[in-house]
Every structure is written in C-alpha cells, then in structure tokens.
Amino acid sequence: MAPERMAQGGRIDRDRVLRFRFDGRGMTGHPGDTLASALLANGVRIVTRSFKYHRPRGIMGAGVEEPAALAALAGAQGQGNVVPTTLPLRDGLEVRSIHGWPSVRCDLGAVAGLVSRLIPAGFYYKTFMWPDWHLFEPAIRKAAGLAPVPDTPPQGRYEVRNAQCDLLIVGAGPAGLMAAVVAARAGARVMLADEGLEAGGSLLARPARIDGAAAMNWVAAAVAELAALPNVTHLQHATAWGWREHGLVMVQERAPDHRGLIERGWRVRARHVICATGAIERMLVFPGNDRPGVMLASAVQAYINRWGVRPGRRAVVFTNNDSGHDVARELRAGGVELAAVIDSRAGASADDLPLLAGQVVQRSLGWRGLRGVEVAPLSGGKTQRIACDLLAVSGGWNPAVHLHSQSRGTLRWDDTIAAFRPDRTAQPSASVGAADGRFGLHQALQSGAGAVAAHLGLAMPDIPQAEDAPYRIEPLWSVPSATGSKAFVDLMNDVTLDDIALANREGYGAVEHAKRYTTAGMALDQGKTGNVNVIGILAGLQDAAPGQIGTTTFRAPYTPVSFGTIAGGRAGPALLPYRHTPLTDWHIAQGAVIYEAGARWRRPGYYSQPGESFQQTIDREARTVRQGVAIYDGAPLGLYAIEGPDALRLIEHACTARYGTLAPGMGRYGLMLTEDGLIFDDGVTFRLAEDRFLLSASTGNADAVGLHLEKILQIDRPDWRVRVVNLTQQWMNATLCGPRARQVLARLTDMDLSTDAFPFMGLRAGQVAGLRSRVARVSFTGELSYEINVRQRDLPTLWDALLQAGAQDGIIPIGSEANHVLRVEKGFLSLGHEVDGTVDPYDLGMGWAMAAKKGDFIGLRSVRLRRASGLARRELVGLLPEDPEVSLPEGAPITPGGRREASEGLVTACVRSVVLDRWVGLGLLLGGHARRGERVQVRLPDRTIAAKVVAPVFHDADGTRMRE
Amino acid sequence: MAYDLTITGPARRTVFEIKGDPSALGSDLLPPWPDRPCRLTRQDDRAFLWLGAHRWLLIAPPDHEDGLDAALSAVHHPDASVVLLSDSLAFFTLSGRDADVAMSIACPLDLHPGAFGPDACAQTDGFGVRALVLRQGDGWLLAVEQAYAPYIAAQLAQIV
What we know:
Radius of gyration of chain B: 16 Å
Structural class of chain B: alpha+beta
Number of domains of chain A: 6
Helix content of chain A: 10-25%
Oligomer: heterodimer
Shape of chain A: elongated
Shape of chain B: globular
Low-confidence stretches of chain A: none
Number of domains of chain B: 2
Number of helices of chain B: 3
CATH topology of the largest domain in chain A: Gyrase A, domain 2
Structural class of chain A: alpha+beta
Largest interface: A-B, 48 and 43 residues
C-alpha cells in the first residue's frame, strides 16, 4: 500500500491495484483515484515548478480549481499540461513533472526567484522593447514555458454530438441531483452533466447525512432512479465549459464508453438551464502560500474522506470562516495530528478545537516542502512558530458563477457570504445550491427542487431531511505581512500581492486592466481560487467595496478543452466540406494536382508530366488550347433555371445587360452588381423560350448568386411571378476549347456546328456521344469553345468520349492554372483578381456591359453617382514588365516612382504568355485608362520592377478567334 | 462498444423540385399535399415534401424517373415549375439501433420523436453543409448536394 494511504475509507477499489510511473518511479493506486490522490498517497509533494519563478509546487486542490500542479503524460496518449486533480488514474500511466531542469526537486531555473524583484508583472513590456521584443521572446518563453506539445497526436478519434432538452442541469451535487429527479419525474427531457468522476459533488468529500443516513446513499438512489428513466441523459466526467447565445451549452465528456473515442463534445440546446455548479474555495494570501504542503482545506477534506489519503502527518488549519473548523475535525478523525486552527476572526470559537482566534499565518516555513508556519495576531503582536507538514487553508467560498456569467447573467456582491452571486439572468436559467450562495445542504436540496418546480409549474415536492451547517465569514484579502514578499494571489501565473499593487499604482487599477497587466486569472485554472482575492485587494487599495470593483468577464472555456473535442470528426478526409465533381477521381488518377478553386470545389490545377517543370506544364496546357484542342472540367459552373412570366423582369433587374432582345437559343454576357454599383459576378444568360432562361454564374459565386436572386424574389419582389431553380449539380459541363474543337465535337454529334447554324453565344440542345446535351458556344479562353452540358451522371461518359474523339487531334485535359493564363492573355476578368469588391464596370473598361436602353437595375444608380463625382478611379490596365523574363507578383503594389508611399494601384494577375512568350500582367492603376504607354514601378520589399502600361488584352483583341 | 449502425449510399433517387403553385400540376401525379411546411406525405414509395415558401420536393425510387419525367415535363404553367433534380442530390440511409446517435452527430436539429415525427422533413445542416433530413422506416434518410457525397461518406465512415 502506498505510504500515505489510510488503512481504510475512501471511495476507491482497494481490491484492484493500478500501476503507474511518475518521473520514472513506479507507484501504485486504485480505481477511483485521480492522478493527484495517487501521487499524494505515494508521498509526492513536488509535481511541477511554477511558471515564472520556478518555485516548487505541489497539489493544492482536488478538482478543477487546482491552481498550481500540472503534469505531462507520455506515451500513446501523450498530453501536456494535464491537471492531476481531474485525471482518473489508469493502469500504465506514464507521468512526468514539468518545467524543472534537471528535475523538479532540483531546478536550476529557480534562479529566477533570486532576481524576482527585477522581473515584476509586465517587466517584459518595459525592458525588452529595444531593439526588438522578438529578439528576447524565445528565451523568455523557454524560461516561462509549460509542458511541451507531445510529439505524436493522440491515438483515437473525437466526436461531437448535438443534443436538445427541456432542462439542462449542470452539476450532480445535492442541488443538481434534486433538480434532476424532480424534473425527470415530471416527464421533462432532462440532461444532467457533471464534471466529477462520479455524482455527488461536495457530498463525496464530507460525511453528510440525508434522511438520517449517509448522504451518498441518497445520491446512489437518485442516480439509479435517473438511469431508469428514458427521458434522462446523465453524463459524468462531463464539464459544461461554455454557454453561448440561444441556450447553446458546450459540454466536454472526457471518458466516453465507446471504442476508440478519446473524448466527446456535446452541443446542447437547452430550453432552460439549471446551474448547480457548486462553489469553489478561495486561497488566503500570505507569504509562502504556495509551498508544497499548503492546500485548500476542502481538498484536504476530500483526500481524507473520498480517497483515503493522508496529505500530511501534522496539520494546521488557517481559515476565516466556519467551514475550516469542519475540516479540522475531519483531519483529526482521519488520524492526522491537529496542531492548531488559526482563525482570523477575533470572535471565532470552537471548544473542541485548538483554536487561535484573531490570528493569522504570517508566513510558511520550509524549503521544498512545508516545515511549519509563523503565526501572529491579525492586529499585530508576538509571533509564534508551529511545526507542521500540512496547512489547510480556507479563504471562504465563491459560488461557481462562471456559466451563469457566460450566459450574460449579472452578478452582485453579497456581504453575508463575502462573494459574488448570480443576480439577473439573461437566458432562461436559474442558479441553485452553492452556485447561488446557498451553502447549506438542506438549502441546496430545497433550491434545486424549487427551481424546477417553479419552472415547470409544479407544486413544491417533499424535500429530504438534511442539516444546514453554519457559515459565517469575515473576509481576509491578505495578511499584513504579505506586502513585499512572495504572497501569491494567482499561483498558476506567479502573480503576487505586490504585482496587483504595482498594477494599481501604474494606473491599471480597473479589474480588467489589472488582469491584463498582471495575467492574474488567466491560464488553465482561470483564477478560480484567486480572482476574488484580486478584487478584494484592489478594493482595499482603492478604498472601495468589492462590488464596486466588479469582476472580469467570465469566458469559455471554464476548464481546458482539447481541440479534438471542439473539432469532432472534422479530421482527415472529413476536415473540410470539399465539393467533388464526378471527375475528381479521374483527375487524381491522371496525376493532376488538385486544390480548392472556389466554393470548396476541388479542381485540377494542372496535369504534370514526367520531367516537366511547373511552368512547362502550364505552358504546354495553355499552348494546346491556343493551337489545338483541350478539355476542361467545367462541372462546378453555376447554373440557374429562371422561369415564369416575370423571368425577363428578374434577369434585367439583377443583371446589367439587356436580354429582352435575345432570341431563344441565344445568350448574352452580363454583369451582376451590388447595390453600391460594384461588380458582384459575371456570366452568360441564355434564353430558352419567351419566359424561360438559363443564367450561368461563376463557380465561386454560384451559391451567393442563388441567394441573391431568392432574396430579390422573397423580400424585394414577392409579387413577381417567376421561379429560380438551382441546376448547378444537375447539369454539368465539359468544355471543349481550341481551334480544333469543332472537328472533335463533330465526331460525336449530328448537330450543325457551322458558324451560321450555331453562332458564337448560341445554345443548342441535342445528342452528344449519345447523351442528352445542351451545348453552349461561349468562351473563357478566347478560342473556339463549346460547353457541353449533360446530366451529372453522364459527365464521365462524355469526358471519355471527348478524349477518344480528340485523340487524333492531340486532345489533353487542362487545369485551372492554364485557364488563368488564357484568361489573362485575353484580359478577361477573374473574381478575386480584377474583381475584388472595389471595381465597377467602367473601371474594367466594360461600360459596354451597362445596357443603356433598359430601365433601372441593381447598382445602376450607384454607378452613375460614382461616375458623376469625377473622382479618379483605379482602372484595369495591361502591364508588360520591362524585362520580359521577370514576373510581377500578384497583389504587389504599384507606387509613384517605386517610392515608399501610398500605392496608386496593384498587380492583379501575372502569367507567362504562350502567345507572346513573355510575362504579361493585369493591374488596377489610378486613372489607368489614360496612362497607357507610361512606365510604372511595382514595389517589392527589396526592389522595384519597372513595367509598361498597355491595353489589357494581349491576344486576339477583336475576338475573331472565338467567333469564327 | 461500437455503434449499431448501417449506412448505405451515396445513391441517386428520382427527385423533382416543384416551385410556385403545385395545384397547377394536378392531383393525380403527386401524393396528397402535406398540410404544412416541413411535413411530408407518402404514397406508392413516393414522398412529397413541403420544404419552404413555394417549394416542394417529390422523391421517388430511381426507376420512377422516366415515367414521372414524361408526365411532369409536359406541365407548363405560368405559376409552377417542375424541374428534374435527380442528379443534384446524393442520398444516404442510416439504420440500426444507433441511427439516432449518428444523426445527432450529423445534424443539430432536434430529431427526438416528440419534435420530429414520422411525417417531418427539414432542410437543415448535415455535417456543416446543407442537408435534407427525413425518417425512413426505423432509420433516416440524409440527402446532400451530390458534390458533397465523398465528404459526407467520410464523415459517416468515422462514426461507424
């Protein structure tokens, strides 16, 4: 048996032994142990070194409040910065202490403590700014680091479930269990989530009684009753860590019973939330309050009663409230020698205890562990030393208001309990039990039942019999000797009383400022044991009441949450919701480099051939389109059917061009503008019949265009008789492009492909490769092109047929990179390049797309207003680098004379032209249309590149090739 | 413990989107009208879903497509559109004792029988993309844009 394990007692399975290692030492524990209880049972006092001063730290708490001890797990389930008080002990656990070198017992980093006066809070903001903070940052981070990230990811997977309920009850202590039982019996859909390893809350750690029997009997009966009800979901070891708008509460289930599952996240939508989150004990602020052997009194109580562990042999209790007296009695009952109870309240009394009323611990004594305490009257006077190896400290209790506050509920200061408690709710909820400042057991049961009864409109049920222990407190924010010493208010971040005073002196006295200045309340424990002490200290410094100081904002997460619990199954091939065309697998099999090309579509970028460089591949693909024939997977192109008597009206309202003059079977290019007259999208619209149209949209904007049209119909023009149906994934196209496209297509169809019968911008229906098809004669390359649309299921068949039909002409597939080259050579706009949300049609030299002979349309007024202002605009230009072998980085600024001053434009695209055999670019340049022939400078961080301004088209300026 | 879950798909079904006024189509082609949005009716293996404002969906087995297409394509009415969309949606079925669990991972909607009955349907969120959800037998039918089918299949494979 481990040396500090008591002979009996505790809620552990003594019949089974778990073996684990800490810093290489073999140790044992039992099922029911946490890592912390097992370490204490094995006599481990130093678990880690502190964040800043490398001070030795041991276990101080027994749950999520743990402010000092962290550890790292090695092996398959490696994890850094584990809180030992919340980790269930497992067989084979490999645990390492952190932040000590060569060991936590003898850490050279402790030298930081010797120069602590030189490194107060915020020192690095003041002393490491010159010449550059980043010069010092690595060394400072290394000195102040925590556990490293494990080398390998955890083995297993994560999952996130959604859940809905009438009542979410957070906490399975007496108040939460009582609430759950009442709600479940009434038939409500109940979800009960509790962060503990088992239900019971505070009852697990103290010998309370309910209905004349051990309180845990009542807990067991309640849990069994809930388990038998189909309307209850009960999660243990599951922390509600965040509460968002509309009743969304996030829960982290740490040990789900499911094969391969590491953790499970829950996104719970609750109609009503009961916060039964209990209360957290505060530390007291005195010199050396961080020494291993100093613990929260409630933790000492838990280790004795729940885990059968003796945290020390000779104890002193230091308290400012009645709860410390109970712990003193239980220490004695557990076989620990009780040396003294130091109570800062002058009027405190307890005949059965060795009480020193009106006295405080001046400082702790010892080096790596507690050896004793120095005690003196609070009002000043003679000190005395008391030998001890355990100091149980109680600074009073804070209701755990975190969730309530995250929901935007307000708090109020209550002098009777010297703590903040919930005030007004912001979402449907109630706080009960200790979370509402009702620390008595009967109060907890009554408030839990009462809150549910009130919410569900039930009569108040019978409440089990239980006693309310007295709770009186006189707040003590720090002892008189704390100033000028290592009296910690936040152990996780090594923030001392002096740091808070410094922040106040330097003008950071507001509680939110003090937090940022000192880092008090940050990191893993989020200041659960120290935040209210900070507020009390600031109140003292500012001669104000704590309620006037207020609290910092409680933010999620309440406890540390793994990324996996948030991400769930979003990993590997399911990381992002990519869209695939029916040809994606074919592209991959051909060696195409695949990447996202707008709206989550995965498309081929280019098809590398062995021995080719990237540029050679792009050149080959682009040149094939200019000289021969190629095919392009156009499946993602947006496509909408627009039907009804008002179809024309809708299209002319949404687009810039005029479509009323279109004959059926013909299409026209147009732009869509935003209300402020900027280009939103472009595409060709075909007329199928008098009242039927097909509107194409760019791949990246297809979804947005659909929403835009629906918004017009559902909100702006609900009286219009027109319907819009998304055909994007019903009909998909393979684009045949290049001078030989006609002769390839002719092998697969009996359509008349002559220019007279099937002119540019025509649309024809027929059979291609035996498939029902619609063929559009449009071009994004500047060459003769046919977009052959078939049903999604038929696209692979069409694709194969085109490749076979074009084999004798050397047909090849091309990717998005070559497509980009071809567009730039023609000066065709690209979304995200030339269309960047700042340009209107005139800026791009496309005023011709603004129909003059039709009525109003979206964006027209704004364009006219802008034009009327006469202000210079950034306009589309072509750019020819003076050195034809030099490319212009896309996005690079153009500045006057290449000087370091405000830019006058930018490079929007630059490609190596296969028709000019040189680099060519497009750009937006202030007053660009009138500056052709000028020399401009593209400014890079280390040089400038000269370029000549030319017309934004480098190939077939009059468009003969795509029309012929 | 593993989930008791069987997943099939992605598969294609016959799907027609009906927009506007469905009364223009005549009653003999469609199952009875659902009485309110987010409800469906079934008849002869066909389901008729009222998805939202002026929007219905007819879902039928794959071999119904030609017959329905011939009948519905002939309909030309100024206030109704019927568009074949069988290729647009990929259907997955989820069955087994833990099908509800899998759906709770896929979908944030409240699918409890008390909130989402056998005649309920919804266009909602499935693994972060737009999805159509309805009950089928003791399990579920989940339909997404066919382009998302590989992504949804990968998500479902992780659950199994």
